[in-house]
Amino acid sequence: MKGFIQTIKNIWSIKELREKLILTFTFLIVYRFGSYIPLPGIDINEVTRLLDAQSDSQQGILGLLNSFTGGSFNRASILALGIMPYISASIVVQLMGLAVPYLQKLQKDGDSGRKKITQITRWLTIAICLVQAPAYLTLLQTQLLPYNGGFHSAYLLDPASFWFMVPSVIILITGTVFTMWMGEKITDRGIGNGISILIMVGILADLPRALLNAFELDTTGGIFFLLEIIGLLIVIMLCVLLVQAVRKIPVQYVRRAQAGSSSYMRSVTDSVRSYIPLKVNASGVMPIIFAQAIMFLPATLVGMVADQDSSWVVFFQKVADPFSWQHSVIFAILIIVFTFFYTAITIPVNQMADDLKRNGGIIPGIKPGKDTADYLDDILSKITFPGSLFLVLIAILPAIVNMLGVDQSLAMFYGGTSLLIMVAVILDTVQQINTYLLNHHYDGLMSTGRNKNVA
User: Fold this and answer.
1) pLDDT, tens only, 250-293
2) Count of alpha carbons within 13 angstroms of residue 14, beta-carbon side
């Protein structure tokens, strides 16, 4: 504990790091405060009462979106869309970069190209908001706060009127743009990746309530709740291993230099050893996101069918239930397929082999060029399969622990996209803080002059 307190003091003593942390926390407070501001024409007290009555029905895509937005989605907040339109736009631009030559050229243009890609992503975010905002307001009237179901007291204005729809669409788009701006400011002037931190904070906002519900539902005097906490910590450690696990491919770089005197010259060959780190989970959370997008289709199709009692409708209802075994099996297959697909399109083994050959690097025992590309592809395939199985385990773990008696609200923190995002963001932020601490320690040694005796 003493060492932890001293580390906090060291962090606070660095002016630049202190200012970055203050700015980051300030934006996070603003973001959380904005998630409680309702749209004009919405009675926040009535919304709170309805949410308390509907707290057990948050599943599927609605529960996921609500989790990512820190509850703003269900509260009819001005930040209800959150940062998700920007995430969708980023994914679209990333996938288009594989097929559109113009985007491929921008990706190779360095900082100027990245700025143009960022600008394209921003405009695409607004375009997505133009579609999602009216869809959200329609969903608000039909499912979240059903206007025709007798809950008229939640609306101070007619939700179908011009004076509710148009201002609400403008406010929702503005809320997403403002959230996107805060995320970019945190990245530029704060600490960590701003967009990811906003998502993580939204996810963590539901954790205290989930823990409280689990504790209140425990009938064993706290023993089962303690086992739940221990299990959650074990799962978090497994996620850390999954995020950081790499396969190191040894690489040897050969350098040639000229040495000698005025009477003769001779060639000197020097070798430098390095390695290529191939991540076991190179695709991150993208396979889970893609698989979830596919799994949301059954629920959408079932809602359009009039006969809700037919056998195939009942089957699709089970598939849409994130805690059913049918959902887990299909979900697992999709994750494995998307893991191999996304890894194949994001890890260019041919380009890596060409770069090694151009820079004088070789993998010991492997010929440069095509043989190197085939070797890297073979290694990548071998580590991707166990990585995909581990990703499947993390993804379906909420359903498994729910079958063991863990409350659904807490079970969602045992795996899936939420847990992987939290672990990855926390590790990245801690690494950046450690970098500042190490740099400060190095500057301190230089300023005191104690490094003069170092050989």
Assistant:
1) 888 766 544 454 444 444 445 567 888 888 888 777 787 777 76
2) 21
Is the domain covering 232-247+277-420 a CATH 3.40.50.300 domain? no
Count how many residues are written for the chain: 455
Confidence (pLDDT) at 294: 75
Residue 125 structure tokens: 């975010």
Is residue 117 within 8 A of residue 93, CB to CB? The reply is yes
**Nearest one of 448, 440, 449 to 12, comparing CA atoms:** 440
Q: Which pTM does this prediction carry?
A: 0.77
Amino acid at position 36, single letter: Y
Using alpha carbons, list the distances in angstroms from residue 87 to 137, 313, 338, 353, 428. 20, 32, 18, 31, 18
Domain ranges of the chain: 2-205, 232-247+277-420
Candidates 444, 392, 432, 374; CA nearest to 187 is: 432
Model confidence at 455: pLDDT above 50: no
Distances (CA, A) of 360 to 108, 252, 277, 369: 22, 8, 18, 11
Q: Which CATH number fits domain 2-205: 3.40.50.12780, 1.10.10.10, 1.10.3370.10, 3.40.190.10?
A: 1.10.3370.10
Topology agreement, domain 2-205 and domain 232-247+277-420: yes
* Under 8 Å between Cβ of 145 and 76: yes
> Average pLDDT in the 308-322 region?
70
The Cα-based distances of 183 to 86, 195, 197, 222 in angstroms read 10, 5, 8, 39
Dihedral pair phi/psi, residue 308, rounded to 5°:
-90, 0
- 74 versus 49: the higher-pLDDT residue is 74
Residue 76: which of 47, 50, 45 has the closest Cα? 47
